[in-house]
User: Fold this.
Amino acid sequence: MLPVIGITCSRISLPGGGERFGQNAAYVRAVVDAGGAPVLLALDISEKALRAIYDTLDGLLLSGGVDVAPHRYGEMPHPRLGDVDAGRDEVELTVTHWAVADDLPVLAICRGIQLLNVALGGTLYQDIASQVPGALAHPYQEGNSRGHIAHTVDVVPGSHLYRILQPENGVLPVNSMHHQAVKDVAPGCVITARAPDGIIEGLEEPTRRFVVGVQWHPEEMVANDARMRPLFAHFVAAARWK
Ligand code: MN
Assistant:
């Protein structure tokens, strides 16, 4: 049996009205290439329906997307806050609480690491550029590919992330498509990677088998950069042993 990996979805507005729930193919391909069976988790379903789906999962991939609503971490909206999605926050916070409690493997990417941090009691910078003086350019830059290497991260020795990725001299080149970042780290989580400007780019819950968050987009790098493949391989392998 292949491990079933739930991938959270975005809400996509359609021209002329209507909505679509979906997620970038790169997440699906990265899970498939690592030996997992991906399933997209719809939004706007009852908690009972979400639970029924959750009970079939062996792993949870928290994907990228819009900003987490700041009231979820006790803050008022900053003027540079981007779009939010209350329904998506609800689904993702609910499944994340279940998964962490059950020690289900979680790979949290971009918005995912932010959501994971908020779910476990941490806070976010609502806009890096206006709240962190001297920060690097972390948001997507017009004209760059999604795999474009934007900056490096220093990976913390002894972390799951370090053991999995084995970065040369502890340094990894990564892409960067985010305007928010982890501010106060959730109780029980540890920092596993930082950008040269100090922005937190990796988190994990060390008492769990695999609860790993990264601020970059490894799913957009794996096609051209074998260094990121072990992240998905270890995630899916951990899910195999639910
Ligand atoms: Mn970054």
About this structure: Residues 138, 151, 176, 178, 195, 201, 215-216 surround manganese (II) ion (CB under 6 Å).
